[in-house]
Amino acid sequence: MIRLRASIAAKLVLGYGLLGTASIVLVSAVFYRGTVGVLDRDIDGRIVVQSDRLLARANGLPPGVLLAEVRRQLDDGVDSDREIFQLVAADGTPLAGNLDAWPKSQLPSPGTGPGLVSAMVVRQGHPAPARLYLRPLDDGGALIVGRDLSEQEAVREVIWHALLAGAAVSLLLTVGGALLFRRAIERRLSAIRRTAAQIEAGDLSPRIPVTGHDEFALLGRDINRMLDRIELLMEGIRHVSNAIAHDLRTPLGRIRGRLDEVVRREASVPRLTAAARDAIEDIDDLIRLFERLLQIAEAESGMRTRLFERLDLGHIASDIGEMYEASAEDSGLQLTVDAPEHLYVDGDRNLLASAVASLLDNAIKYAGPGASLRLRAGLYHGGLASIAVHDNGPGIPEQERGKVTQRFYRLDDSRHLPGNGLGLAIVSATALAHGGELVLEDAAPGLVARILLPLAPQA
């Protein structure tokens, strides 16, 4: 019982059942009012018109004329099985009519207005329900005009039975549909719960089965994409852990070896100074490694999205290009900057500037002396903002472009160069944090490393 009260499916079924029941009651009330109500209003109108017509014919004539008119109405053979006429004297004596008994207590007194009443009467020796229009006369008597409602009551009873039967069938269908609805919801939710239980147990590979295009299917696709992302991040964490362990082992071993060598040999100030300097350089490399890992983690976590502001991407490209002109010239490279203004994006200035700087660092390092570099900002296909670094160096093989954005991944040809394989990983994480992506393209020869970002919405 507690489980049912806590079940959202049970609550939906109960709400659906109550809504269905309320709908049935409302439709039945409208139908009843549109059938029986119309009949009742029609009968009232008829007897009022008949009463007015009788009195109009006898208006200003001797009392015997009204009596004769009542008798004529009773003897004309028209609707005689349902019509009611009764003329009563001032002392209550029946003068003419087809009633054996009527509600004498409800007869209007002189000076009062006419009235419509529903009452039981005795007509031709049989009790029957009737609708009566009671009108007082000037001589103290009363005229009763009415209709026998036996047929209407039969119709009313048939309608009631039909409504009750229809309501019962509709209620059964509503309850049955609600139960099927609950079963369908629980079946779809159970698939999500089973997948969640497997994920909780440590297996990140299961996915929610998705069929159709309803809300549960959309939710399943969203959860599956989330799980794909989580699995990718967990795989990245495992890879990073292994890579960190591997990359730390070498510099730590080198530091330990140098210090151990100094300790084993005869210590001298120059030797200790040289060992300390080498150890400090290796430690600085480790610090830079961890700083870059923290930079990737910060970009992927979205912690700095609250610092986003409206930026002109052209200004960022121009500032970074100006900073690297001297460095490119010292390396024997020619750097040109093409940075038009009014290319606005929403982002973090420091992160984007660092990403562009990493692309230029890579281009200067790998393009080789004599190469030409071009830093360009502008619009890209699909209404995106682009900031790209072109070079005419050796480039990256097509089969390797999807791997170089992984942490610590380095091409075989570049392992002799200083670095730790985190530059493009940082750029990719920064682009994703800004709702964009890093795209590597063949420049034939060389490489185009392009950061694509969504344009800022116009104010």
Please render the helix and strand layout as text:
Elements: H1 2-6, H2 8-57, H3 63-75, E1 83-88, E2 94-97, E3 115-123, E4 126-136, E5 142-148, H4 150-200, H5 215-264, H6 269-301, E6 309-312, H7 313-330, E7 334-338, E8 344-347, H8 349-367, E9 372-380, E10 384-391, H9 423-433, E11 437-442, E12 447-454
Parallel strand pairs: 7-9
Antiparallel strand pairs: 1-2, 1-5, 3-4, 4-5, 6-8, 9-10, 10-12, 11-12
Oligomeric nature of the chains? single chain
End-to-end gap? 55 Å
Order of strands in the sheet with most strands: 2-1-5-4-3
What is the class of the largest domain in the CATH system? Alpha Beta
Domain Histidine kinase: 243-457
EC number: 2.7.13.3
Catalytic activity: ATP + protein L-histidine = ADP + protein N-phospho-L-histidine
Keywords: Kinase, Membrane, Phosphoprotein, Transferase, Transmembrane, Transmembrane helix, Two-component regulatory system
Q: What features would you describe in this structure?
A:
This protein is an alpha+beta fold. It folds into 3 domains: 10-156, Beta-Lactamase (2-Layer Sandwich); 215-300, Helix Hairpins, CATH 1.10.287; 305-454, 2-Layer Sandwich (Heat Shock Protein 90), CATH 3.30.565. It has 9 helices and 12 strands. It has helices spanning 2-6, 8-57, 63-75, 150-200, 215-264, 269-301, 313-330, 349-367, 423-433; strands at 83-88, 94-97, 115-123, 126-136, 142-148, 309-312, 334-338, 344-347, 372-380, 384-391, 437-442, 447-454. The strands form 3 sheets. A 5-stranded antiparallel beta sheet has the order 2-1-5-4-3.
